[in-house]
Amino acid sequence: xxxxxxxxxxxxxxxxxxxxxxxxxxxxxxxxxxxxxxxxxxxxxxxxxxxxxxxxxxxxxxxxxxxxxxxxxxxxxxxxxxxxxxxxxxxxxxxxxxxxxxxxxxxxxxxxxxxxxxxxxxxxxxxxxxxxxxxxxxxxxxxxxxxxxxxx
Amino acid sequence: xxxxxxxxxxxxxxxxxxxxxxxxxxxxxxxxxxxxxxxxxxxxxxxxxxxxxxxxxxxxxxxxxxxxxxxxxxxxxxxxxxxxxxxxxxxxxxxxxxxxxxxxxxxxxxxxxxxxxxxxxxxxxxxxxxxxxxxxxxxxxxxxxxxxxxxxxxxxxxxxxxxxxxxxxxxxxxxxxxxxxxxxxxxxxxxxxxxxxxxxxxxxxxxxxxxxxxxxxxxxxxxxxxxxxxxxxxxxxxxxxxxxxxxxxxxxxxxxxxxxxxxxxxxxxxxxxxxxxxxxxxxxxxxxxxxxx
Lengths: 152, 293
Hints:
Chain B: Pfam families: Cytochrom_C. By secondary structure, chain A is mainly α.
């Protein structure tokens, strides 16, 4: 009886772990998608800042608008408790994010502020993009310094 | 029989004496940097390139607070946890009471003013290649920084690594002042930045079981000393960035794919962003010249 109970408990634990792991797949993919959209659009703006890609106000603004759009996504939805690198596969999000959620959100908001500046810069001209990119880079860095685990 | 015993005892005593002599701390002589006067403005550049504040600032200090070198950051390793000490100019808790020669002994020889070996968590193994003038300039600049009266904490290191004398043996095995890579003159600035000031090899080169660098795999990537994840390789078998990509990464923190720098490297980029474009290009040129391991 005791044995059966233990076995049942083990099965239940396994099942719930599997269920939990699946639950986190969508938010983790969404988070990484956000980062990919940011990276692709920063690549366009970076190419313009370096003079490798011709600047047009339309292309620059489209990239900047996309970055602003990402920063407007509500982050709490994508960061359910437990979806950190210890509790889930395929993520480098450190558990400290949940310990310091206010700081994490402040850093995300700082990215939003830098993105808004990029919108203005993109509409202003090629030479304005580099400095705005520097501010976005600062926002990326300050969050990744604290909250992203090293790659394996 | 008694004679053999006597002989053996004599040999043992000699061996111990030789061991103690070999593992002694070897500070610089008191007049090592005599006649050099430090120039604080250049010292600030040395300070930035050497990344002093990245480890010696208080935990989570930001912006100008990073120049108060009160210590307290923790560095986990296989040998225990090292806690960065206060190196602000405070005469009691910091290093304000040191002489230039004592400072140079600590930075380039890993010897404290009390004549003890320092742990190589402090990268004197790289700083040994610093020029005397840069050491004097660095010292002059550090005098201008704010003093902090926060006490340094003892390292959390267990037996046998808590016996500082054993570091004398470690130094015999692994402490070298020679350059790692032979380079043509146009790469010397980059080599000076990479191998001496910026101490890139401390994390990007793997270590053996005793914690000594495996120079046959120089900058070829390594497990993260904190125990989690890896430090990427900079060698051409793994890193295919152009020199311009490397320089731009050191300036902006963006990879060619516009991923961003993270972890402790974020602090390195913060420092390199303050150096000249020529220095970033020099580092990039050195990295591009690395051989595959």
